[in-house]
Write a structure and sequence with these properties.
The complex is a heterodimer of chains A (about 140) and B (about 325).
Chain A: E1 2-8, H1 9-13, E2 17-19, H2 33-38, E3 40-42, H3 43-47, E4 54-60, E5 74-78, E6 88-93, E7 96-105, E8 108-112, E9 121-123, E10 131-139
Antiparallel strand pairs in A: 1-4, 2-3, 4-5, 5-10, 6-7, 6-10, 7-8, 8-9
Chain B: E1 2-7, H1 10-17, E2 27-30, E3 37-40, H2 42-46, H3 55-65, E4 68-71, H4 74-90, E5 95-99, E6 102-106, H5 113-128, E7 132-137, H6 140-150, E8 156-158, H7 164-168, H8 181-189, H9 195-199, H10 203-221, E9 239-243, H11 252-272, E10 275-279, E11 282-283, H12 299-304, E12 318-327
Parallel strand pairs in B: 2-4, 7-8
Antiparallel strand pairs in B: 1-6, 1-7, 2-3, 5-6, 9-12, 10-12, 11-12
Helix pairs in contact in B: 4-5, 4-11
Classes of the chains: A mainly beta (about 140), B alpha+beta (about 325).
The structure holds magnesium ion.
Chain lengths: ~140, ~325
C-alpha cells in the first residue's frame, strides 16, 4: 500500500471555519438556530495539531483496510508526533512510502498491514529512519 | 547574540524529503528556464558540480555518476520554506527572514544559545525532514561565518570572544559575507588568506580601499555590531527577480515559461514578507549583459502583448520587479 503526496495542507483546507451542528440530532426536534451559529469548527484545527509538520497523502492499495484506510483516501500525516507501538505510520520501504502499523514485539520492531493477505515486515536497521510520519486522520469519501 | 539558521543545500534537501530514493546519492537541481545548476547535494559537490553550470556542460558528469537531476519546483520549496520560517520565528523573540532558506534569530539573553540552537535544528529535521545549520555570534557577519563553519562542524557553531581566532583562521576569505570576487582578489594580493587575516586588517587601509562597507565588515568581525536585525525591511520592499538566459530565447512559449517562473519566485518572496503586491513591471531586454549576441527576441512578446508598451533595450538580465501595496504581518 503506497501513498502519494498532495499539496500543502493549509492550501487544501484553508482557514475556513464551518458551523457545527449541535450534539445529538433527534428526529422531529428542530435545532435552535442560535446553537448552530455559536459553535464553529475549523477543519484545519480539527485535523491538524502541528500545521508546520503536517502533510497530506493519497492512499494507494488495500493493505490497511482493516484500519479503516481505503484506496483513494487522504491521510493526514504528522511528523511532529513520536512514532510508538500501535501507531499507524507512513514508513519508507525500499525507497517507497507505505502505510503500516508500527509494532514492538519482544524487543523487535515490525511494520504490520491491516489485511491478512500481507505479512508483518521486521524492521532491522535504521528503524527510526524508516518511519516518515505518523498518520493521525483519514479522510474517506463515502 | 545573533544566530543565523540556513538550510543545507535547500532545494536538494526539499526534493529528498519526498523522495526517499535520493538519500545518499548525488542530486542536482536545475533552474527551469535555462537549465543551470542551482542546488547540489553534498555528494554532487564532492563530484565537482559547480553552481551555475549549464546542464549540457555537466552532462558527462551526470551520466558517469548516475546523478539524479531535477528541475526547480518552486511551489514545493516555497511551502517548505514557509514551514521552516514559521518554526524558526517561533524559536526566537525576534527574527529576520533573509532569504528562502536563511533566517537571522535574536538570541539576546539566552542562557544556553548552543543548546537552544541544537534543539531548533533537531525540530526542523524532525518536523520537516530538512537539515539546517545554525551559526551563533555577537554580530550578523560573525553569525554568517559561524554558519558556514557549522556545515562541517556538527551543525551548530558559536563564535565567542575567546574562540574567534580559532574559528576565523579556518574560514577562507571568499566565504565571508560581503566579500565579492573583486575584494577577494585585492585582499589576496595583500596577503590575506582567511577571515582572521581580514579581522586583523588595518582599519585605515580597509576604509581607503573598501570604503565604509569594508570598515563595517571588519568591525562586525571584531564583534562590534553594525548591522541590526531588520524585522521590517524597508530596503527590501521591492522584490526583483532577474535572470540571464543560458540560450537565446526566440519562442513566445519559452519567454512565457521563463516569466511564469519569475512570477512564481517573486510571489513566493512577496508572501514570505507578508505583503500584498500592487504592481509588477517587467523588463525584457533585447541583448545579453555581455553585449553583442541578443539573448532574447522581444518581437514575439510585443506581437502577443500589444499593451506592453515600454520594453527597455538596456543590456541587462530580464527582470520582474514587484512593488508592494502594503506591508504588514498577518494577524
Ligand atoms: Mg542554504
Amino acid at each position: 500500500m503506497g501513498c502519494k503526496l498532495l499539496g500543502p495542507a493549509s492550501e487544501i483546507f484553508g482557514e475556513t471555519t464551518l458551523p457545527l451542528a449541535p450534539g445529538a440530532v433527534r428526529a422531529g426536534f428542530p435545532s435552535p438556530a442560535a446553537d448552530y451559529l455559536e459553535n464553529t469548527v475549523c477543519l484545519q484545527e480539527l485535523l491538524i495539531a502541528h500545521p508546520q509538520a503536517t502533510f497530506l497523502m493519497r492512499v494507494e492499495g488495500d493493505s490497511m483496510v482493516g484500519a479503516g484506510i481505503h484506496d483513494g483516501d487522504i491521510v493526514v500525516v504528522d511528523r511532529a508526533i513520536k512514532p510508538g507501538d500501535g501507531k499507524v505510520v507512513v514508513a519508507v520501504m525500499d525507497g517507497d512510502f507505505a502505510i503500516k502499523r508500527l509494532r514492538y514485539r519482544g524487543g523487535e520492531c515490525f511494520l504490520e498491514s491491516a489485511n491478512p493477505k500481507f505479512k508483518p515486515i521486521p524492521v532491522t536497521e535504521h528503524s527510526e529512519n524508516s518511519v516518515w510520519g505518523v498518520v493521525t486522520n483519514v479522510i474517506h469519501r463515502l | 547574540m545573533i544566530a543565523l539558521a540556513d538550510g543545507n543545500n535547500f532545494y536538494c534537501s526539499c526534493e529528498r524529503v519526498f523522495n526517499p530514493t535520493l538519500e545518499g546519492v548525488p542530486v542536482v537541481v536545475l533552474s527551469n528556464n535555462d537549465g543551470c545548476v542551482v542546488a547540489r547535494s553534498e555528494e554532487a559537490k564532492a563530484l565537482g558540480f559547480e553552481m551555475g553550470t549549464p546542464e549540457f556542460q555537466a552532462r558527462e558528469l551526470i551520466e558517469t555518476h548516475g546523478v539524479r537531476v531535477f528541475s526547480s519546483n518552486y511551489t514545493l520549496y516555497g511551502d517548505m520554506s514557509r514551514r521552516m520560517m514559521e518554526l524558526l520565528t517561533a524559536s526566537a523573540p525576534a527574527t529576520e527572514i533573509y532569504s528562502i532558506d536563511e533566517c537571522f534569530l535574536d538570541y539576546t539573553g539566552m542562557a544556553d544559545p548552543e543548546e537552544h540552537a541544537r534543539r531548533t535544528r533537531e525540530q526542523v529535521r524532525q518536523w520537516l525532514g530538512l537539515p539546517i545549520c545554525i551559526g551563533i555570534a555577537a554580530t550578523k557577519t560573525l553569525a554568517k561565518a559561524a554558519n558556514k563553519l557549522a556545515k562541517h562542524n556538527g551543525g551548530v557553531v558559536m563564535i565567542t570572544a575567546d574562540n574567534t581566532e580559532e574559528w576565523l583562521t579556518k574560514l577562507p576569505l571568499d566565504k565571508l559575507w560581503g566579500i565579492g570576487r573583486a575584494h577577494d582578489r585585492r585582499l589576496r594580493a595583500r596577503g590575506f588568506r582567511t577571515a582572521w587575516d581580514f579581522h586583523q586588517a588595518d582599519p585605515a587601509w580597509v576604509r581607503k580601499h573598501m570604503g565604509v562597507v569594508g570598515e563595517r565588515m571588519v568591525r562586525e568581525l571584531q564583534g562590534i555590531a553594525c548591522l541590526s536585525l531588520e524585522e521590517v525591511q524597508p530596503d527590501r520592499q521591492n522584490v526583483c527577480c532577474a535572470k540571464s538566459f543560458g540560450t537565446r530565447l526566440t519562442e513566445l512559449r519559452d519567454i512565457e515559461e521563463a516569466l511564469a517562473n519569475y512570477v512564481n519566485t517573486s510571489a513566493g518572496r512577496v508572501r514570505a514578507r507578508c505583503c500584498s503586491s500592487a504592481s509588477a513591471p517587467l523588463r525584457l531586454p533585447n541583448s545579453s549583459e555581455t553585449g553583442s549576441q541578443p539573448m532574447l527576441d522581444q518581437r514575439p512578446a510585443i506581437r502577443s502583448y500589444p499593451h506592453v508598451r515600454c520594453l527597455t533595450f538596456r543590456p541587462a538580465p530580464a527582470a520582474l520587479f514587484v512593488r508592494p501595496l502594503h506591508t504588514g504581518l498577518p494577524s
